[in-house]
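During the reporting period the student researcher (J.K.) took over the structure-prediction task from the postdoctoral fellow and processed the backlog of single-chain submissions. One of the processed entries is reproduced below for the supervisory committee.
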Amino acid sequence: MNRGIKALRFVVNAVLMLGIAWTCSAQALKLPPHEKIVLKNGLTLLLMEKHGVPIVNVAAIVKGGAVADPTGQEGLASVTAGLLRKGTVKRSAQQFAADLDFIGGEFSADASADYTAISSEFLEKDVDQGLELFSDAVLHPAFAQAEVEKLLAQEIDGIKAAKDEAQSVALNYYYGYLFSKHPYGRPGGGDELSLARIKRDAIAKFYETNYSPGNTILAVAGEFNAAEMRAKIEQALGSWTAKASALPAIPAPPPVKGKKLLLVDKPDSTQTFFVFGNVGIAENDPDRVAIRVVNTIFGGRFTSELNEALRVESGLTYGAQSFFDSRKEPGAFAIYSFTKNESTVQAIDLALQVLAKVHKDGVTAEQLASARAYIKGQFPPSIETSEQLAKRIAANEFYGLGDDEINQLEARIDAVTPEIAKQVIAKHFPEDNLVFMLIGKASEIGPGVRKYAAQQDTRKISDPGFWQGAK
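J.K. obtained the following structure tokens:
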């Protein structure tokens, strides 16, 4: 990275951190204003001026993520994104990297379940070169055969290596088992089998099918004049040809009824990594703020009920947490931790007891006050920089969320009462319908965990893939 940008970031972050407390106490949290324009080719453009730091950040969302991967070629969206900076029609991968480094810029691309995210950063004085590099990567990727083979080999080796570290793949197994044949159950990064099936032609087809201006949201934030930036974007991306892109229709995944358990055997493991939960909420769920407050108390921070019980009081683990992975359609709710083989049942039992307790007792006014203060203190730093703001407004646009998602956040947090929390717990924190996934030494932990679910499934961690039911 360019030393000028590094130095700027250091100074800016220091100033921002010093100013956070004053900003939060002196005024309500508010998203800076921004413009929305739809260009002639269908590109949705969001422009947010943020003066004071001579940096420009670009964040694009292409509405084609892992859910668009053909069955059997899981990882295709991720590989396509990873190849964007690996050479264009007029630049080799090495030349692209050199040109980017010359201006001290950054460029990255990756695919999540719902979409592909592309981002870039450069100094204000290098905006023309930065936008030219960005547009070259997005509009003219070469997908050179040598780069395709190299990246696929790296990804396959990475998955094989990850299986040696159970925590690295725990969610792959959990999501596959939880969502089964729903697209959210397929591994976004692929697996050893699916990646080996991917060819250059499939990558080029995925790009042609999903990468189009009408399928793209582009957010720009930083030091610029909005009218001038619009003209620059039109020059850089206006030639991107409009075309119809048929997005796959993704149904809402149904919650699992009853209980089931997947035990992934890792014979050399001295610890058990466990995840359990069910289908959670979509990004735009009406209860999302109340859920966030309640989950902060239950398992969303170091002083949560889960972590206090499993780590602080019992010493069974170094950490326990719960989270909601909200997506376009309902994602996963999960309770996650790890422990020694011999304390596996004790740790899971204790996590279930904490879940039962919050159902029985709800949360207190004091706990709510603490969670409100925690969220209000933690959230503002996540929308301080132009990079964070560009990504935030692009994601809000994708999920159909307005500025009130930020501007009304504090009021919505304050509106959560013990009564509302009780309703949220009953509705969104499942107790009777649970999906369990454990990675550990089956010969030691298998007999003890049979009690958790009537339906039991097993597989070896050495088996390729994650869960065959997700294919």
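The committee noted the following: The longest strand covers residues 271-279.
J.K. will present the remaining backlog at the next meeting.
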